Structure formats: structure tokens, C-alpha cells
Amino acid sequence: MLERRVVVVVYAGAMALDITGPIEVFDTANRLLDPSGARYRVDFVSADAPLVRTSSGVVVEAAPLEAGQGPIDTLLVPGGWSLQNALRDRVLVSWIGGAAARSRRVASVCGGSFLLAEAGLLDGRRATTHWAYSEAMACRYPEVTVDAEPIFVWDGRFVTSAGVSTGIDMALALVEADHGAALALETARFLVLFLKRHGGQSQYSAVLDAQLADHPPIRAAQEWVLGNLHNPLSVAELARQANMSERNFARVFRREVGTTPGQYVERTRIARARELLETTELAISQIAGRCGFAASETFFRSFARTLGLTPKEYRHRFQVISPAGLVDRHHERDRNPL
């Protein structure tokens, strides 16, 4: 195979990053590929050709839908704020259904999964979309098993990703399936991505999930937690940091943060442990100690209860850095269905 043809379906009001994120991954992979590797050729097609304005004002030059005839390696469908209009465009929906039949695999970003579902392509399949619209998708397409948790879902030859930036993660997974983990990781590093995320990771970022409260005393306690995870962290100690009574602190903390102080501490310990498992070679017992778990067994139980994986399993799936740099996992390609 000399090249892999990627056909991107664009429409007025599509989100620019849904389009540009994945194609920058493909372009970067092309520049890093061995000369003998099959390069990606990206074609843009649209019912609104030749100049298509995205929701942010970025204009994409595209060919008419008819230019997308013939075999397709990867059909890519973005989402966008104008999705309702796109779903009412029967010509566009019908074309996507026909093009999917000529494609080795079909991928969507964010609300693009709605267009796949509207074309009947996801019936009986598991799929994801942006977490804010997952309930609407499940109601509109009851034949589709909608999973709001993962950043992308791979079911057979269909790959659906969640909100916006997860299209980059999905594209890296496609590169990995085509050319191996080493090239995907090199591409991620070249794009200065902090992590190359596996599809099973949650849409809800551990960092975003731990945003600090607006209430100054509660924020002070949270900041103290972040700097002292290696220590025992009792509610009484957190209340002292906030200069509040223990009872009042617990009540206000739950109101401001949405969880109990104990649950927040455990969640923050697990978030730090995930970071260390992904980016260091520290022994699991060392990570447990650094994150404030008194015993490795306690760490194992808490980690498994939170993520459904042991720390070792999590590291095996998500670790991206080794002492030598990249982690080459060519032998793991059988994990991917394509």
C-alpha cells in the first residue's frame, strides 16, 4: 500500500478542531514515517464546496461530495454547532452511509457520531460522543449503545470519539493501528502532547475534576492537600488548614466541592498515582507511599474500586515514558481490531 486515503466530510458550521486535530496527526505521522511506509492522503469533500466556513470562522477548501467516490481507507466525520442542520441534510446523511460502505474504517469526532447514527451505521454498536450530548444521542438512537465515559470507542471498523480534542487521541490510535505504537508515540511527542491517551480513559480529566473551589478557606484546604498527599490527611487537619470547625468545614466543603473531604482526598491521591504510573518507572509500592497510602494493599483496593484496574494493569495500558524515552509496544497490536 503506497498511501492511505483519508476522506474528511466537512459542512458549514463544523468545528474546526474536529477537523484540524486529526489531520495534523496524520500529517505529522507522514513526516515521521519511514520512506517505505504508507502515507496518509487527506481529501476534503462537502455539499457546501468549494469554501466551507467552520463555526470559528476558519474556512476549509473542499471538493464536491462526488469527488469522494472510490475506495476510502478512513472516512472522518466531524461534529459542530450546526449539527442539527447537518442531520436534516438528507443528501449529506445518505452520502455518508454510501461512503462508509466503501471505507475500510469510519471515524467520527464529537457530534459526528450523530451523523453516523442518523445514517444507520451504528445500530447494534457501542459508540460515544461528547459527554454533554450522550443522553440526547441515546434517546434519539435507541439501537445504539451510547457510552459517555471513554474518550473514544472502537467497535469493529467504526471509531467514535468524544469531545473535540479527543479526535487527536483517536487519530493517534489510528496511526498506531496502521504503523505501530512507536510512530504514534513519536507523533504525540512531536505535537508536544503531554500524554498519548488510550481510548479507555475517561472523558472527565483527573486534573479538571480536581479544580479548586471559589470559597477561600476551602481552596486553602485543597491546596494544602495537593502539597501534602504523602501525609495522613484527616478531616480535622483539613479543617484546621481552613480555620474552620470540623463540622462546619465538612458541611461547607461538600457544598462547594460536591463531595466529602475524605472522598476528595482519595480521588486526589488516585489522580496523582495515575500521573506517576503513566510517566515514571517508580515501583508501585513507592507510588503508593508518595500518594499517601499507608499500605500497598490499601492502594490496590482504592485504585481498583475507582478505575476497575489494578495499578499494574493501568501502567501496562497507559504508560508512555520509559528511561529510554518511547515505549515500543509493537507486540501489543493484537489489542486493536484493525
Would you give an account of this structure?
The structure is a single chain. The protein is an alpha/beta fold. About 45% of the residues lie in helices and about 15% in strands. It has 15 helices and twelve strands. Helix 9 packs across helix 10 (about 235-240). The protein is elongated. The chain starts with a strand and ends in a 12-residue tail after the last strand. Residues about 205-210 and about 320-338 have low confidence and may be disordered.
Strand residue content:
5-15%
Query: Could you give the order of the helices and strands?
Result: EHEEEEHHEHEHEEEHHHHHHHHHHEE
Strands ordered across the widest β-sheet: 2-1-5-6-10-9
Mean pLDDT score: 87
**Structural classification:** alpha/beta
Determine Rg (CA atoms, Å): 23 Å
Q: Could you tell me the number of beta strands?
A: 12
Low-confidence stretches: 203-209, 321-338
Distance between the termini: 15 Å
Reported for the largest beta sheet, the result is: 6 strands, mixed
Short description:
This protein is of the alpha/beta class and 338 residues long.
Keyphrases for this structure?
alpha/beta; disordered C terminus; elongated; two-stranded antiparallel ribbon; 15 helices; 338 residues; 12 strands; six-stranded mixed beta sheet
How do the helices and strands line up, and which of them pair or pack?
Layout: E1 3-9, H1 16-32, E2 39-45, E3 51-53, E4 59-61, E5 72-77, H2 83-88, H3 90-101, E6 103-108, H4 112-118, E7 126-127, H5 134-140, E8 145-146, E9 152-155, E10 158-161, H6 166-179, H7 181-190, H8 206-209, H9 216-227, H10 235-242, H11 246-257, H12 261-279, H13 284-290, H14 296-307, H15 311-318, E11 321-322, E12 325-326
